[in-house]
Amino acid sequence: MIKNDNHVRTSVKWSQDALQYKQVPLLGAEFDWICGSKAYLRSFFSQVQFFGVLIGTVVYGSLSDWLGRKPVAVTALSLGIVFSILSGVAPTWELLLGTRFFIGLSIGGTLVVVCTFVMEMLLPQQRMALRAFFNWGTARLMVTLICWWFPNWRSASIACAVTALPALLIVIFVFPESPTWLHNKGRIEKMKQSERKIARVAGKKHVETDIQPVVHKKSIIELFKDINLFKRVVVLWAMWFTAAICGYAIDLNSSDISGHLFWNQILFSCLIAASKIALVVFDSSFPKFSRRNLHQGAQLIVCICFLILTVLVIVSPHSIFILIINLIGTMFLEYTWDACYLCGVESMPTNMRATTMGSCSFMARIGAILAPTLAFLNSFWAPSAYLTVCSLGLINLIISYLWLVETKGVVLDKVNLDMTGTEIKEDPENVEMLSKDEKQ
User: Fold this and answer.
1) I need a surface site. Which of 89, 299, 366, 405 has the fewest CB within 10 A?
2) Neighbouring residues of 387: CB distance < 8 A, sequence distance ≥ 6
3) How far apart are CA 78 and CA 109, in angstroms?
């Protein structure tokens, strides 16, 4: 009975959306996915794309550690743009599902490879700034505006592809191969050429430095043999899984907030984008603000916010404070994502960095696939999602406090474990990279 009631409410909501936006062509309506025998395909549509992302993170991550950051990044971006356009002109739902799977593959590659690629070309103090201006808040705002300007889902898909084209051109014609990856592969001359091009693009004078030999290389197989290295990756997996399942669960609930759909999404987007800039200012003003502080402080506030929301939904379900605290919790949940990306890139050796990031993103996709379950539980008990986010966050906070390594300021080319696997060699900036447990 509950299942049927949920189905009716969902169908009514989709019908109301069609009326609110003046009968714009909706994907579900065009392929008869709102009601009837094909209604299940609407949720299957998202699952297919998430499955593609899940596979793409692992495949593209391994390929970039083997073949290089640039060629794999170009491949992922190119295929994503091509299949986004094909998605917009797909004549049947079968072809549409196929194109969305390949879009998912490309998204997985972009999340893992392009992030690692760009991070390896930045100075340690610039990594936080990258997260400030290129983040989900900015992307969410762009997607919202595109969908508002192009209400037809087909034209919106093509518009998204065109919007991504400048990024592909920059990677092809401006970015050189990652000097860090080239150094790791022993291609010293190409590494120097890459460094000179980066200096030229940045308008800086290139300064030759002594090239240190690469030592203690670790393969992906050794990840499972070295207990200390494996423990660090497991901590990252827990961080990424928790951030994903909690973040997607809250995002799924955001569409239920009363008001104008697009204005609500713009509000969330602008708040997230502004909070990222504020984080960079704070990080620059307080050099001792560590990656551990970032993750654990943000995770603690997330737990507090969603515990309060759990109580509010029970005692005052229509309170304006639900929206306010939801916004605050979402903002700090985004900060945990910043910690996930920064710690993931900074804590692993170069020759397995993208592969490890791929495995972390794989765990995040599992969380994303499970997230709709939390939204479904709300039909049985209204604050289910909020309480689950709080509980998972508390477990993640404990894991982070005990075992997350500190990585702020590390030189990525010099992230290597010593022979015992209990510490990471210090770089010229004397950055200590030990967890609380390893220091004792």
Assistant:
1) 89
2) 306, 307, 310
3) 11
Q: Which amino acid is at 48?
A: V
- Rg (alpha carbons) of the chain, rounded to whole number: 22
Closest CA to 185 of 73, 63, 65, 75: 65
Quickly list H helices, 21-39: 27-30
State the Cα–Cα distance between residues 244 and 361, nearest whole angstrom: 9
Residue where the block lists tokens 């990756």? 233
pTM above 0.90, yes or no: no
Cβ atoms within 10 Å of 341's Cβ, excluding its own: 23
Rounded-to-integer distance, Cα 253 and Cα 238, Å:
23
Distance from C-alpha of 49 to C-alpha of 55, rounded to nearest angstrom: 10
Location of structure tokens 């020759």? 351
* 129 contacts 116 by C-beta, under 8 angstroms: no
Residue-by-residue pLDDT tens, the chain, 440 positions: 333 443 433 443 433 444 344 444 455 555 555 555 555 566 677 678 878 888 898 889 889 988 999 999 999 999 999 999 999 998 888 898 899 999 999 998 988 898 889 888 887 777 777 777 777 778 888 988 998 899 888 899 999 999 999 999 999 999 999 998 998 888 888 998 998 998 898 888 877 776 766 655 555 676 677 787 888 899 999 999 999 998 887 776 665 555 567 787 788 788 888 888 888 889 888 989 999 999 999 999 999 999 999 999 899 887 888 878 888 998 899 899 999 989 998 888 777 787 788 889 889 888 887 887 776 677 788 888 889 999 999 999 999 999 999 988 887 766 655 433 434 444 434 334 444 554 45
Q: Is 34 helix (H, G, I), strand (E, B) or coil?
A: coil
Counting every residue written for the chain, the total comes to 440
Give how far Cα 197 sits from Cα of 71, 175, 399, 429, Å: 17, 8, 41, 24
- Domains, the chain: 25-119+122-174+223-439 (1.20.1250.20)
CA–CA separation, 83 vs 106, rounded Å? 9
- What is the phi/psi pair of residue 424, to 5°? -105, 135
Token pair 């996709």 in the structure block, residue: 365
Q: Residues near 317 by Cβ (< 8 Å), separated by ≥ 6? A: 382
